[in-house]
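hey can u check if this looks right to u? its 274 residues, i copy pasted from the old doc so theres a chance i mangled smth
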Amino acid sequence: VFTGFAYGGLSELSEDEYTSCTMGSTIAGEIGIFGYRPSVLMDMLAGKRAEVGTKVGAYIRSFSGDCSPSDLETGLQLVYQLFTTKVEPREEEVKIVMQMAEEAIYAQERDPYTAFANRSREINYGNSYFFKPIRISDLKKVNPIRACEYFNSCFKDPSAFTVVVVGNIDPAISIPLILEYLGGIPKVQDTVQPLSREDLKGLPFKFPETIIREVVRSPMVEAQCFVQLGFPVVLKSTMMTEDIHYVGFLSKLLETKIMQVLRFKYGQVSTQLM
């Protein structure tokens, strides 16, 4: 198993280019982030157990993969291809991605829960563009060229990444492969100073200033109720790891208490998700 991460993600984008750039991973994935179309790559990897995936989040971009010890070289070759491939949009693949995105949006709009979830995010985060659902009108504004440029920039400079490799591997075999394929990724000419955690731009959101209680109604075949209780939490970077665990413990405690009241006092059937 291996993974690599670098600071700097979607929070660094402006509102104008956010929608296009968020589509970058999807468009690039359809074209082929390793220099080959997904169907062609699947045939090339037949009989091998090696795969690599990417993720571009709010603050971090990363790649991760797993492989059998005998296919470590193949896994590292995929990482090399990821950093050396320049994905360029092609009309056919872009059209497929946009059609899939439209179908997904239409499916979500038919789901009664979508209206509830969208309104909840709108209240919790102050109608921030980062948390808004993508609409059909937004898809028409997507710039495929900018989308691919952004994806390429996310996995361009290897010096910005911290990489960890673990598993049942022989150092005598693995180290030369790591030096060859990870160390052999060409140096970027126009490299910039990698971001640190303190340099990251915060997400644009605003917690509610007062208690808000709102009911969202949506037509359903069978009556069903969803309830969300939101408690704004601000985490400080110096104690973030510990605070995340504390918040998790408090959430589980609250979940247990709510379950006890609903089940044993009111005899209601319900499911809690924290």
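The mean pLDDT is 90.
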